[in-house]
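Let's practice the habit of predicting before peeking. Look at the sequence and jot down your guess about where helices and strands might fall. Then scroll down.
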Amino acid sequence: MDISTLPARERILLTAHDLFYADGIRATGIDRVIAASGVTKVTFYRHFPSKDDLVRAFLDHRHGLWMAWFVDALGRRGAQQRIADGQALTVLADVVAEWFADPVFRGCAFINSVVEVGASVAGATDIARAHKREMVDVIAGLLPESLGGPQRMAVAQAAALGVDGAIVKAQMGDAALAREAVDDLRRLLQALTAATTSRPSA
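Done guessing? Here is the structure:
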């Protein structure tokens, strides 16, 4: 996408998003963001008085971007149609595999950011936690309504933890390790699905 015609704030934010995600927050200085987005220092600081402000804006932007993709990917892979037969949870593995195959995949921006700057940037950890809660809520929506509320959330949280574990494993290696991470996640999701769809014998 050509961002040169966008308003200055959007150019800065989109540039920072790509640089922060690809190279890390600490490794990306403000001067680099300014140069890459084609704005002056005065313009930059008018929109983002500090790097911390930019980091929080980056996380908010990334949250909206990733959640929109996540929901769309679940829909494209037929998750809603699988809820009735209790198999929608297993679609998560295919969605995660799609993400891992993206050439720009560098892990979870929220896990990465908390590790890098969590305690030093006010609000960063709160944004990351809110992102993970929303992911759990979306996953809970894949589970049959017959499950009670507490059980539904417990299963969704277990699945989300599996997704995060797969992300970290994939980030640590090559394509083969990413495939192994997806396989591990798929087995976990199948086990969770079996546990939630089983019925006690009469």
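How did you do? Residues 50-197 form a domain with the Tetracycline Repressor; domain 2 fold (CATH 1.10.357.10).
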